[in-house]
Amino acid sequence: MTPRRILACLAMLVVTTVPALAANPQRWQLNMTPGVTEYSRQVYDLHMLILWICVVIGVIVFGAMGYAIFKFRKSKGAVAAKWSHSTVAEVTWTVIPVLILIGTAWPATKTLIWIDDARESEMTIKVTGYQWLWRYEYIGTDVNFISRMDRESDRTRMLRSGMDPAAVQRDGENVYLLDVDNPLVLPTNTKVRFVITANDVIHSFWVPALGWKQDAIPGFINEAWTEIHTPGTYRGQCAELCGKDHAFMPIVIEAVPREQFDIWLEEQNRLAAGDAGDSNAPLAQLAADDALLANATESL
Amino acid sequence: MATDTATTVHDDGHEHAPSFIDRWFFGTNHKDIGTLYLLFSLAMFLIGGAMAMIIRAELFMPGMQIVNPEFFNQMTTMHALVMIFGAVMPAFVGLANWMLPLMIGAPDMALPRLNNLSFWILPFAFLIMLSTLFMEGGGPAGGWTLYPPLSLQQGNSMAFVIFAIHMMGLSSIMGAINIIATVLNMRAPGMDLLKMPIFPWTWLITAFLLIGVMPVLAGAITMLLTDKFFLTSFFNAAGGGDPVMYQHIFWFFGHPEVYIMILPAFGVVSEIIPTFSRKPLFGYQAMVYATASIAFLSFIVWAHHMFTVGMPLGGELFFMYATMLIAVPTGVKVFNWVSTMWQGSLTFETPMLFAIGFVVMFTIGGFSGLMLAIVPADYQYHDTYFVVAHFHYVLVTGSVFALMAGAYYWLPKWTGYMYNETLGKWHFWLSTIFVNLLFFPQHFLGLAGMPRRIPDYNIAFSDFNMISSIGGFGFGLAQLLFVYVVWSCARGRSGIKVGDRVWEGARGLEWTVPSPAPHHTFTTPPKFDDRDLAHGDVSH
Amino acid sequence: MANPAPDPGIYYVPHSSKWPLVGSIGLFLMLAGFANLMNGNKTLGMPMTFAGIAVILVMFWGWFRNVISESVRGLYNRQVDFSFRMGMIWFIFSEIMFFAAFFGALFYARVLSVPWLGGIGDGELTNIYIWSGFEAAWPTSGPEQVGGEYGLIGAWGIPLLNTMLLLASGVTLTIAHHALKAGQRTQVLIWLGATIALGAIFLYFQMYEYVHAYRDLNLTLGSGVYGSTFFMLTGFHGVHVTLGTIMLIVIWFRCLKGHFSKDDHFGFEAVAWYWHFVDVVWLILFIFVYVL
Ligand code: HEA
Ligand code: HEA
Ligand code: CUA
Ligand SMILES: [Cu+2]
Hints:
Chain A is of the alpha+beta class. Chain A is 40% helix and 20% strand. The two termini of chain A are 40 Å apart. Classes of the chains: A alpha+beta, B mainly alpha, C mainly alpha. Chains A and B meet through helix 2, helix 3 and strand 9 of A and helix 3, helix 7, helix 9, helix 10 and helix 11 of B. The structure holds heme-A (2 copies), dinuclear copper ion and copper (II) ion (CU).
């Protein structure tokens, strides 16, 4: 590593310990993103808490060991002691870890109970995983579309395509394998509930900036929720092995202010309804999507 | 249990040396079977490692350069299956075969013919499993966990892989039965259970784990088989089943399985550290009870692999607490090892180096394990390279390092010659440097958001992946050094013959027999006094 | 074979034997052949499977002949006997864990997955969004009625009869054991014979019930999770009864040949343990599969 890179590393370490930066993966990123939701921040804090606990215990244990290694060498004339037992020590190092663990389990439990409660959400999105794309349905509206990896990433990722992954960019950001045709648009400052399932095999819906992932299980619905505070584009990927193109079913969330979202939704709703008039609209949409799906599976 | 053995009959004709076939194919001698196990596992380690090299080569930089995604997934799946069932588990069984009878003063394993069967099932099992790579549709590609419905989409390989795993399970169960019978029934008179060296202790407990969970794995994959071929609906919601049910059954096996791979490692390290500290093992009884507690807890933590499947809240909390508890007995072990070294008289031959490396790096892996146990945080960590980093720290720098330590420790006893200490030390330092280069950056990758089981990734992940791959190649090459050291030691290349008690601080019955250990040992049960025991002090 | 004189104070470490290797080859042929069959490759699968089974049978025959002859020659002392006991006990324990996996599946389906699909507890959304209209009940073939309509087998007919048969067989086997300990060979043969007969009748009824289920009730392996758990549990149990019966038959002939003495008859005891284990599994099965 060049000195510049080392510096970059250190800089990254500092940067990522300051919340609310770098919601999407960065080069030389060392740490978890603090994300853009209250939950993701709590997770980040829990992560740092347990990390530091481990570091401290590690320093103590490895320190003692290092001391022993340097101090009690035979080559330095060390003579072995005969003792092999100490009740006080043994009780101590059983009890203290238990206390530490209780200390960590407590905040973890609180966070978990809080995130488990999806009541009072203002809207519901149904997410369905397919091999290898996602479908998003805005429950209570006609908006229902599928979201696939962008064409450029798709061409670039072909075996020995000769294309440069670094060249796949959007707004100056490298989005190789992390961009889609139709992003999931969400309003900020709104409690959004997800009901997640899959159509074929298990997938997992994961956007690191939200702070969680949730498996999509065929035949079952899993529930999750989020409330994004910062508008922006948040990228994620399918996180459960789902076959050969598991690496190629990204998720992109476009978080926009509520007013903007309402306009967008209305527009989409009209488009969906306008397609084939009244109640047939969703069906037509589905048919069109199925054709796309068939295409997708054909091009395997 | 004291025994009424006076002498032992070896019904294989002492007078004349057995023929090659008699000895290596039909043999019942625990040392020969141990050797077979160890060689087999070394071969599997190389094969599984070669697959890992393919994985690392494809991940060397972004873009798809070498293999297509389907084959990549086959490599991931096979790499894990080969390493776990082919390399690590048989290696520990090999050590058990060689050392248990020597350590407890027994003439052989309790059920010698069964022992041979346990071994010979393995090559055939792997023949079946590896052959799927050459079949139409290739090998299994659903990950070593074989989750349905994905694994049910697999082509011809599925039935073969399932039967191969059945065979491995059968072999493990029989091996475990043999170890239990040996430890409970064959100890030399006067060797009470609580005087027995730690390695047999950890193996005894491991054997119970094996018998408890291998049949459950067999059940799980049998249900996969019937779901695929015989119309059952265990894992199909439309028929009232649940894909997640498979995960529960699998991990009921899977979690104890990881302790099956680490408890004997604890045993090996607990033999080596006192030897090179020239000081009795600190807290012998605490070590035994800690091992037993870990084994017990391992049965009630399985769903920590499934925090994101959408379990009810109560389940998540229970499994989080239970998982965290395991840190306590494991901590006791770590602290006891450090205390054993404290005020010792330390020397740093290769086995000790590997043992120290084990303690440090296993603990690092344990720490990341503890982090994974925190459910809300696991929602982020799960299925990322953070998990990959965790389990390679506990498996490679844990189990594999302990195996290396054990191999160096006992090689002189097996061959009668000292291995090449200089090369041994090179092997250790190269391994340690490269393995950290290989797996430490994977923590960063996982935290930054790189999922596991992907053949290609965003530019953001490119730098650490390249470092990791370089570490991987280096670590792989370093293992060739190990192969050479073993080979040259077996050939007696160093020319240094060793005595009975190879290491100055070594205690235990295995060091009272000549080196190389003669074909038959302890045909009359040995008499020993308690100071001969490995740890020297069994009163606490 | 140049065997030293049998000495009761000696742990017998057997000479090299070809049977383990033969056994693993047999296992390999059988399972690889079976896998081929499943993938529809009959040309390779058939001969391999049958060759494998044949090799395994030969292996058992040869291996046990060895063990029996060693045993009869008195090469085994108490310690060896203890090893055999350990072997059998832990083997049975592993079998228990194998059944536990399938009972686990049954409980999981009944207590968790089916209620969830029906919208109970955590399954509320699952039911609303995917399986609306499905009501949780047991038995069930799931929301899509996989396998179609089917009838049930009542607990109080053949299953109850079968329970009686197996319980009775446990008793007859114990009587035989006592007779053996008392050295009454004819009694042993009679009661052991009765046990075998009871086992065989059990198997007959079980077959009868299966035929009835498949032909008349449309209750098959494919009848959703109910059919799956029903047939896998009773099926594996049936396989074990079959093995147990074969073992009993072997033991019967060994008794006839006078292999067992009053206080040295581990072979007999091992089979008895196995039989009782099969018995207990049936009792649990009767309760959870048929009655409840
Ligand atoms: C040898 C193998 C081995 C061992 C020993 C362990 C040990 C542990 N493992 Fe690990 N684990 C694996 C192999 C292993 N694991 C594998 C293979 C997987 C992935 C499987 C797959 O998905 O493919 C996995 C995955 C895995 C997960 C699931 C992650 C996920 O998929 O999301 C979790 C979650 O809880 C976990 C936890 C733990 C814990 C808590 C321990 C503990 O036992 C660790 C205890 C040790 C210590 C904590 C260090 C020493 C202690 C002290 C110094 C005392 C003081 C310390 C404190 C109080 C902090 N492991
Ligand atoms: C005991 C178990 C064990 C061991 C020892 C290892 C050893 C190694 N493993 Fe791992 N691994 C697993 C168990 C193990 N692994 C498991 C359970 C998984 C999860 C699978 C899944 O997701 O389903 C996994 C997955 C896994 C992945 C993630 C794949 C993915 O998610 O897509 C990676 C990637 O780097 C990896 C790498 C390595 C490397 C580089 C080694 C090295 O330590 C190997 C070193 C050894 C050698 C290299 C052999 C010796 C040398 C030669 C044969 C000469 C040739 C050498 C050169 C050409 C340099 N392994
Ligand atoms: Cu979908 Cu991975
Ligand atoms: Cu685990």
